[in-house]
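Deliverable D5.2: sample structural annotation.
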Amino acid sequence: MPSVTAQARGGCSLCANEARECTDTVAPVRHYSWRDAKKAGARPCVIALALLVLALALASGSALAQLSQKPMQIIVPFAPGASADGAARIVANDLGPRLGRQVVVEHRAGAGGALGLQMLAKSPPDGDTLGVGATGALLLNPNLPSNSGPDLLRELAPVAKLIEVALVLVANPSTGPKSIPDMIERSKTTPGGLTYGSTGTNSSQHLSIELLKRVTGANLVHVPYRGSAPAVIDVIGGQIPLASVDLTSAYPHIQAGRLRALGLIDGKRFAVAPEIATIAESVPGFGRASGFIGLFAPAGTPAPIIKKLSHEVATILATPGAQAAARTLTAAIAYEDDATFARFLAGESVKWKEALASLDLGQ
């Protein structure tokens, strides 16, 4: 065994012996108690050192699962007021008290939800910075034939799936088309086509309509926004005739008559708003799965921290308060733990890669 050299002053730091070179050999700790070690002639400094090493080894696993007490940040990569913002706040409002620390929601909108997640990916993998993500930046961008950006699924660690939210194509009730067939017809007869807003370039709201264009031949021109809420405002104000947005932002205005729902992008009607038809009912064969919002951490975050956060989120989403909050978002709680969510993302990535393989965004 290597020697342990005591400090020059004050004697050995682990026993009261005077300053000297301690050359005792440590017996295998797991086979000896303190009393056994003393009988074997080991000095107190060596016994204390061995027990300290053993204690640190036993504590290391549980220590990894302990989050710091610094304020926690949840990045929302879209503008305030939509489903991503709402889902983040459902988690943040209860996670802070449960962990005994402050949780702050930060908005970093841009690039169809990719900008904020890229910031998350560059954060220290210590559990202090989380973020919510949606289909576009996670499943669509990486699978576009022209994509040269980062694959965020590789740079982030899934923590939990939070909610499912429908996507809907809406129109101005006074100046916009009355139905999907009317929209297709008008787009073909209007010089320059019809413009439509979305939550940003390469978001699921954007690319779903690009797929609809390919199927129907509609002449629709994309106008990117920094989230659903700004696009909804411009449709209501008449600046654009159409928008592909999440149902959270649009539903109150649909109910009030300020927007007309042309159809859900989803493959089936959404249980929270069953009166809204799907686009597939007018365009057979068209339809994508419901959108989702999930919680993520930077890749490399220790597994015990991921598991702890996922468990806390499961408890939060099961509360009546969270269920009620989801309903106000026109969304459905859809919790999946980190492992199940990771499998879901992998499967959806394959499906979207096939769907986007022939999509030419230059057209």
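Annotation notes: The CA atoms of residues 95 and 326 lie 16 Å apart. The two ends are 72 Å apart (CA to CA).
The annotation will be released with the project's public dataset once the embargo ends.
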